[in-house]
Amino acid sequence: MRRQPTFGCFLLLFVLLGAASLLLGSDQAAAQSTPPTAGPLSPLHPTFTMLDAEGRNVLDSGAPVSTMRTCGSCHDAAFIADHSFHADLGLRSMTAPGQTASGRPWDTSDGMFGKWDPLTYRYLTPAGDERLDLSTAEWLMLLGGRIAGGGPTVTSRTGDPLTSLPLDPASPETSIRTADGEIAAWDWQQSGVMEMDCFLCHLDQPDHAARTAALASGEFGWANTATLAATGIVTHTAAGWQWNAAAFGDDGALLPAYVRVQDPTNANCAQCHGLVHTDIATPLTIAGCDTANPQTATTGQVISGQKIAQSGVNVAGKASLNRAWDIHAERQLSCTDCHYALNNPAHVQESDATRPSHLVYDPRRLDIGEYLERPDHNFARGQSAQYTIAPELKGTMRRCESCHNTDSHSAWLPYVDRHMQVLSCESCHTPQMYAPAIESVDWTVLDADGGSVVNCRGADGPDAGVDTLIEPWTPTLMMRGDIDGGQQLAPYNLISAWYWVYDDANGATRPVPLADLQAAWFEGDAYAPELLALFDADGDGELSSTELRLDSDAKTAAVAAQLAAQGLNNPRVEGEVQPYSINHGVARGEFATRDCQTCHHDNAALHQPMQLASFLPGGVVPAFVNDANIVTSGDIQVGDDGTLHFQPAPEQAGVYIFGRNRVEWVDWLGLGVFLAVLASVTLHAVLRFIAALRRPRHTPELKRVYMYDAYERFWHWLQTVAIILLLFTGLVIHRPDMLGMFNFRYIVWVHNMLALIVLINAAMSLFYHLTSGAIQQFIPRPYGFFDQAILQTKFYLYGIFKGESHPLEKTRRQKLNPLQQVTYFGLLNVLLPLQIITGGLMWGVQQWPVAAGLLGGLPVLAPVHTLVAWLFAAFIVAHVYLTTTGPTVLTDIKAMVTGWEDVEVHAHAEHA
User: Fold this and answer.
1) Could you tell me if 281 and 210 are in contact, meaning their C-beta atoms sit under 8 angstroms apart?
2) Which end of the chain is more exposed for a tag (fewer CB within 10 A), N or C?
């Protein structure tokens, strides 16, 4: 018979709902929180009985508490555990090694259970492997502090309960590597399993340390009970865990004062994710980039509403940082506000795929009673690069634009929509990180403690003290590939890792087990003499950080020989780079990036390289992992000094950034044409001047003609000035590295206004010339055109140097000679329309991206626009010079000012 939930059960479920964001990889880990309160935490939550796995009251049985039985009295605990990727951790997606999206030959899933992490290094051994590194039991012992329970902690890889598996030391699911290196069988019946730990997320003060200690000792069945240690419900004695009868009523249920159930808080999430600081009265402190706070260690993200300037962190320039570590924490948002249960009626978003096509909004929601019984613990999540589990849930959480609009940006940011299309909000709102983060992890060598060598950004190392000076560091912007097919530049930290791999007996590539790596490097507690003699350059018997490097072929060969001596075939070094998305540590507006030249400049911060390592371990250049959500937008390069860095190149992903991106051959071609024209007119002018000195001055017969009316002059000068200013402002936009003294934002605005003036002026001029018939002057006449063009060409080439008269008469009806007609015909019918079209599409790329895309987008439009601009510049030079070829140097210029022009009288002239 189906259980009918009571109203009290519903209230309990409602409170439990907040667990939704607990384990989401939002960004938190060890919390610094306040002491618990003394009274009942939630008067709405009913009291309940603590039950063991057999359904008995723990006071009677003295057995560990069962969360599935206890919480399952009101909630469908089985449903919750089955709908939680924090419980599953990749168990459902397990495959044979090498078949996952990561591309690593040894990965068996897309989650924590089966996906190798070079930061923790240990490898979850699949069945049939030659050597055991991590069995399921040791995996839980080692990483249990970050595991919610359920999934692979209760169920085998084949779907059977772990407690039903026969003892078999040959199976990685029922074995353990002992302290002396031997492989022994693991008895799950004796150790117990760890059910999904509801208390970890729903208590105000879960005892994370006691829980982790229980897991590390292999007492898996008691781990959830240990979580209650700080509540007074249970205590740990020499005889084991003892239930406190005083915490229970006569009916066997907990007394109200001991019901510490609540919605999950940021501090709950922090236990597994990253550093959360909730007490703003106590200065926040940070010590190095300790992986105990994994999200902070890998990204530098800190969830705290405290001002950086008021914290206890020794950040360079701290006095000026009057901003919170995270604006959302300062505004009292919780992790669960964004990372909610997907079926929560208050937050649910129906996808376009499931919502009826005729509805914009579907008001139908899950009944609150059903929701409280079965809250989905597959929480809304973003699109981080580092978490690949449950890819079908990526992008289910609300983004920045779900709560904010960009109207305020239009007051200072041009092309707001275009910027929002290309840039994620975090790109500008997380301009710098103020906590250390890991830069590189080197497992090719081992430190004196048998661990890897870790280098950090912003601090000297992972073990730096709280007083260590932290230098703010800048995330690199890479093109993020969104699940909807879109792309945006987003901030990342890049962590490079190097490690040894070998070929096992089956020919499969595997990372060298840590036990074998330590056996190769050490004899007892000291370094192996062969390696110490080679690495110890100063002979002091110790290895400093500069000595403990695999920076020569001799060192690489020596370590490889030591590994081969352990029976490892073909040991070699491999390397990888893992991007880590940065989505928190958000700054409010005045601390966000607002300077256009941060991106629109040759030396912009957007294009600054990010160091990956100070040298290349084993001489191996690492490659990006295959399953990160990045699109190629940069290159891994080795500097002349041997350092390794990532050089951003957004143009590789089709992003064209004005002021930064240029097509060199277009610039050189345009400049070449301009200089050729300039050189030609200069040479022509010099030759004219010399010829004039050698011959008598010739004064032709002139007559005064009203050549240009007022509108023609106005149109001409307005167009001339506007085009010249367009060329200048365009040059500033194109080359801010050369003309950085100008404000980029205002230059863009001026350029657009000038373009509008030119467009309106050209339209009005076209209307005038069409209605007045003056358009006929710009159209070449077929009859006699070539003869006249040849005459005019001969005049410019040598007749002008002899003082000859102009071969063709200029009249009010025929102002242009054939060469001018051809030039203007091309100018007005090709260059000007082409410039207007490319400029208009560039300006309107945010409104009409499809139209711009049909012509190649900005990477094509911008170079074409630039080339035409160079041709306009060349035309202006030639045009201005040709105005000097009249009877006097200034005759044509004066005519365009006054309208009256002195023209030469030809014998066959018709009087105008």
Assistant:
1) no
2) N
Nearest to 461 by CA among 440, 492, 443: 440
Q: Give dist(CA 879, CA 895) in Å, integer.
A: 15
Stretch 44-49: mean pLDDT = 87
Q: Pairing state of beta strands 509-511 and 234-237? A: unpaired
Q: How confident is the model at residue 790 (pLDDT cuts 50, 70, 90)?
A: confident
What is the side-by-side strand order in the sheet with 276-277?
Answer: 31-32, 276-277, 303-304
Burial of 643 (0-12, 13-18, 19+ CB in 10 A): middle
Residues 6+ apart with CB under 8 A from 760: none
Q: In Å, what is the CA distance from 728 to each residue of 380, 742, 745? A: 50, 11, 15
How far apart CA 422 and CA 480 sit, in angstroms, is 10
Other beta carbons within 10 Å of 53? 18
Alpha helices (H) along 374-470: 400-403, 416-422, 425-429
Q: What are 866-907's pLDDT values in tens digits?
A: 999 999 999 999 999 999 988 888 988 999 999 998 888 876
Tell me how far CA of residue 400 lies from CA of 243, 338, 403, 739, in angstroms: 47, 10, 6, 35
Instruction: Please report which helix (H) or strand (E) contains residue 858, including its range.
Output: helix 858-882
Q: Nearest-CA neighbor of 50 among 337, 344, 252?
A: 252
Which amino acid, one-letter code, is at 860? V
- Give tens-digit pLDDT for 81-132: 999 999 999 999 999 999 999 989 999 999 999 999 999 999 999 998 999 9
Tokens of 380: 């809304």
Residue 482, number of CB atoms within 10 A of its CB: 16
Closest by Cα among 764, 912, 26, 765 to 382: 26
Label the pairing between strands 476-481 and 630-631. antiparallel
The pTM assigned to this predicted structure is 0.86
Which residues are bridge partners to 610 per DSSP? 646
CA dihedral 21, 22, 23, 28 (to 10 degrees): 100
Q: Which residues pair with 177 in a beta bridge?
A: 183
How far apart are the C-alpha atoms of 481 and 632, rounded to whole Å? Answer: 10
* CA atoms in the 13 A half-sphere facing the CB of 243: 23
State the first-to-last Cα distance of the chain, in angstroms, to the nearest integer: 110
Dihedral sign for Cα atoms in the order 271, 272, 277, 282: positive
Structure tokens at 325: 């570590």
Instruction: Give residue 3's pLDDT.
Output: 42
CA–CA gap between residue 56 and residue 66 (Å, rounded): 10
**Residues listed for the chain:** 912
DSSP single-letter state for residue 454: E
d(CA 372, CA 602): 56
DSSP string of 800-853? GGGTPPPSS---SS----HHHHHHHHHIIIIIHHHHHHHHHHHHTTTT-HHHHH
**270 pLDDT above the threshold of 60:** yes
Determine whether 693 is exposed, middle or buried from the number of CB atoms within 10 Å of its CB (0-12, 13-18, 19+): exposed
pLDDT band at 699 (very low <50, low <70, confident <90, very high): confident
For 455-466, give one letter per residue: b (16+ CB within 10 A) or e.
Answer: bbbbbeebebee
Write the CA distances from 835 to 633, 661, 766, integer angstroms.
29, 19, 16
CA dist 723 and 757 (Å) reads: 10
DSSP state of 546: T
CA gyration radius for the chain? Answer: 38
Exposed, middle or buried, 404 (CB in 10 Å: 0-12/13-18/19+)? exposed
Within a 10 A sphere around the Cβ of 742, how many other Cβ atoms? 15
| CB environment 573-586: b (16+ within 10 A), e (fewer) | bbbbbbbbbbbbbb
Question: Which two tokens mark 528?
Answer: 């192996």
Helix (H, G, I), strand (E, B) or coil at 477: strand
Contact call for residues 660 and 421 (beta carbons, < 8 A): no
